[in-house]
Amino acid sequence: MVYRFVTLCCFWLLAQPVFAWKQPIDSLQNELKKYSRLDTVRVQLLNQLGFEYWIVDPNKSEEYGLQAIELSRILAYDKGMAFAERIVGVAHWARGNYDPGLEYLFKSMDLYQQ
Fold first, then answer.
1. Alpha-carbon gap, residue 55 to 4, rounded angstroms
2. Which of 20, 38, 72, 106 has the maximal Cβ count within 10 Å?
């Protein structure tokens, strides 16, 4: 009985980080679905989603980052583009694509320095 209780408690403690990651992602996806304007707020939502997906799913992280880059370019929103370039760079790095990852990270650094 005690062994079963300890096992259940360990599983619960180990599962908490997984559920904690899922909650912000779901909330941000709902916000993005509701927000239809193409402005800097949308860029920030895309960037936050990309940031949340870095560890969970680098492919989705890159997808959101690329959308944020495209919209930032249209809006001439350098701050949003710098963060989006960083997101895409880290997504590449997480998948082991180091050269393209560094290219995006250097672009991000240049934008931050401007």
1. 31
2. 72
The number of beta carbons lying within 10 Å of the beta carbon of residue 25 is 16
Can you tell me the distance from the alpha carbon of 88 to that of 90, in angstroms, rounded to the nearest whole number?
A: 6
Q: CA 58 to CA 20: how far, in whole Å?
A: 18
Q: Within the chain, what is the greatest distance between any pair of CA atoms?
A: 62
Provide the 3-class DSSP secondary structure of residue 47.
Answer: helix
- pLDDT tens digits, 31-42: 999 999 999 999
Could you give the C-alpha distances from 21 to 17, 54, 56, in angstroms and in order? 6, 11, 8
Q: Are 87 and 58 in contact (CB under 8 A)?
A: no
For 47-90, the pLDDT digits (tens) are: 999 999 988 999 999 999 999 999 999 999 999 999 999 999 99
Q: How many residues does the chain have?
A: 114
